[in-house]
Amino acid sequence: MKSKIREHLKRTLHYSLVLALFMLPVLKMQAADVTATTHEVPSKEAIANMTKEQKAARLEEIKARVDEIRTMDKSTLTKEDRKALRKELREMRREAKAVTGVYISVGALIIIILLLIIII
Prior knowledge:
Helix 3 packs antiparallel against helix 4. The protein is mainly α. It folds into two domains: 1-35; 39-119, no CATH class. The protein contains five helices and no strands.
């Protein structure tokens, strides 16, 4: 009788361990989804409709998030989390460029003027 109970407990423990091993990757994926933040770059029309104050506020938000990421201890992050952070930083860089606009340096402006003088 004791051997049947012991056999049943061993079998139950074995099934529980196998089930737990199969569930670990699922739990890890869900945890990665929770920690990963999605960041979408607003469209050009949305940026064009923003006021200067809204653009300045958004740039401050981006700077604060970048500082937060820089101070983060990245050694404890998983590979997927680091990849998500890099993606978020790239998207924020694109958004910052879209918000600030394109600036022409003085040297480029002089070259453009000289080319126009030569062509005309």
